[in-house]
Amino acid sequence: MSNTEETLTKPKGPAIRRGRYGRPTYTQAQRIIAKFGGPARFASAVGIDRVTAYHWCYARPYGADGLIPSSQIDAVMRAARSEGIFISPEDWIPTRAIYAPPSDVQSDESDSGSPEI
Fold first, then answer.
1. How would you label 3-18 residue by residue, b for 16+ Cβ within 10 Å and e otherwise?
2. CB-based contacts of 107: which residues, under 8 Å, 6+ apart?
3. What mean pLDDT comes out for the span 26-44?
4. Would you say 97 and 26 are in contact if contact means Cβ atoms under 8 Å apart?
5. For 31, phi and psi rounded to 5 degrees?
6. Between the N and C ends of the chain, which has fewer C-beta atoms within 10 Å?
7. How far is CA 101 from the centre of its chain?
8. Helix crossing, 39-46 with 28-36: angle to 10°?
9. What is the number of other CB atoms lying within 10 angstroms of the CB of residue 117?
10. Quick count: other Cβ atoms within 10 Å of Cβ 20?
11. CATH number at 24-86
């Protein structure tokens, strides 16, 4: 295969990217931050910068891909205990985020085969 063919078949950029920082793969950080009442309250309780909490919700390479870094888990657990927030073991399990298709793309399921009247 020549260099020209390789450059023509090479994908350009990520296939699905929404927003400035893309979509994170996991929802662990979003679930736990929501239990604190949002990124600002979470950041002040844990003792980190608010921007750091937002970055945990960004996709890679801009953030932590929706995961809380393992070095911060103890601090998050201490903050939750002191604030009286219950974080269940299920909240710590990283689950994959599921996104709806963009509104400008029609799925095959919505097409029933009958014409609109």
1. eeeeeeeeeeeeeeee
2. 101
3. 94
4. yes
5. -65, -45
6. C
7. 16
8. 80
9. 3
10. 7
11. 1.10.260
